[in-house]
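Collaborator request log, item 7. Partner lab (contact: R.S.) asked for a structural prediction of Fe-S cluster assembly ATPase SufC to inform their binding assays.
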Amino acid sequence: MSTLEVKDLHVSIEGKNILKGVNLKLATGEIHAIMGPNGTGKSTLSEAIMGNPAYKVDQGEILLDGENILDLPVDERARAGLFLAMQYPAEIPGVTNAEFIRGAINARRAEDNPISVRNFLKKLDKTMSFLDMTEEMADRYLNEGFSGGEKKRNEILQLMMIEPKFAILDEIDSGLDIDALKVVSKGVNEMRGQDFGSLIITHYQRLLNYIVPDVVHVMMDGRIVAQGGPELAKQLEDEGYAGLRDELGLDIKLTDEDA
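Returned to partner:
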């Protein structure tokens, strides 16, 4: 079993404090969800875990299997088994989808033991078929000209091909229609098992109808203020964040949209 633990994490960007003492622990074999209002720090948490240098860690630790990874650059964190499916995946002209994925797989293998072309193509074809992706997607430049749904589906393709220890899925459901949401969820559920854990960041209960989490964390004002089982997400859907805020007696201002 592997573990990913965030301890008393304080993070700022451009001098503004965003995370104000986040604590959570995730193990392989578990799916955790983080929900919360806009601007509360959910995406900041994902970027800090992955090592985006624009986000300054002012205090705390990020531990992967007990080792603090704060000094590791992004590529070393990826090699160690972390994966981030981004809310807005970047376009990379000149690099095909297949080239990118094979390079990412080999980056986590010994230099003298790359995945063979035959085995790679066999796995790629099988995974793309599972995700209802056309064969031509493999030869298109990474995310260039992709629709929003294609980009999100492509992130799950990368996830299933690379097979990290832990995947952070930052609003993977954003902008998806119900059919695309079902396919993306199918991919994540296929990965569930004792060698894989995931931290899913979402605003909405609907994703959690398809990927049922073991634990739900609620973030407000840069902190985790509540956690529970899947029923907590349903409570938020019924009562909104304002209801939970008032129940907890928190002095936090919410936008009309989040309330």
